[in-house]
Amino acid sequence: MSRIGKKPVEIPAGVDIKVEGSKVSVKGKLGKMERDFHPKMKIEVKDGSVLVTRPDDSGQSRALHGLTRALINNMAQGVSVGFTKTLLIEGVGYQATQKGKSLEMSLGYTHMINVDPPEGITLSTPKKTEVVVSGYDKQAVGQVAADIRKLRKPEPYKGKGVRYSDERIRRKAGKTSAK
User: Fold this and answer.
1) Cα atoms found within 13 Å of the Cα of residue 56, Cβ hemisphere only
2) Tens-digit pLDDT profile for residues 10-41
3) Which of 3, 15, 84, 163 could form a disulfide with 28 if both were Cys (CB 3.0 to 4.6 A apart)?
4) Where are the chain's structural domains?
5) Spatial distance between the Cα atoms of 138 and 131, rounded to a whole number of angstroms
6) Which phi and psi angles does 170 have, rounded to 5°?
């Protein structure tokens, strides 16, 4: 059995989960999500938790078992608590400012860069050099954070650029003169 797949998904307080065949709908205080899963996986709600079972031990079934359980858990956690990713901006003159729902970033280019969040994602700037991406869909939060990081990846010599708050940049030594 999959160690992740056999664990039941505990339904948090205030979250409503409905299963119709292979379609799972999750509704909570932050929003609602729907997702279709593989028809082989059997999903059922029992005693305040969701159980995922697989029909056989084939390679595909074993892979889908843990994946299905993890995705349902992320949906339940997302609509009740939500997900956040923090990005740090390093470099002289590099900064981000809030313009309504969107972000205006100065990252050393000749122009300002505007970032408009998709539906369900919130961008905020507690400091000029910090961007917080939050929302109820874990995949969308991670994708928006990756897209913002891609605007100016951190470089290894001075560490300038946009990086995740828990990311460590391996620094390289610069050129030395040969005497």
Assistant:
1) 4
2) 999 999 999 998 899 999 999 999 999 999 89
3) 15
4) 9-80, 83-164
5) 17
6) -80, 120
Q: Do domains 9-80 and 83-164 have the same CATH topology?
A: yes
Which of 171, 10, 9, 14 is CA-nearest to residue 90? 171
Rounded Cα gap, residues 113 and 97, in angstroms: 10
Provide the token pair at 119.
């539906």
Domain 83-164 fold: Outer Surface Protein A; domain 3 (3.90.930)
User: How far apart are the C-alpha atoms of 120 and 44, rounded to whole Å?
Assistant: 27
Looking at residues 120-134, what average pLDDT do you find? 95
Q: Can you tell me whether residue 87 is helix, strand or coil?
A: strand
Beta bridge partners of 164: 87
Are 33 and 84 within 8 A, CB to CB? no
Q: What homologous superfamily is domain 9-80 in, according to CATH?
A: Ribosomal protein L6 (3.90.930.12)
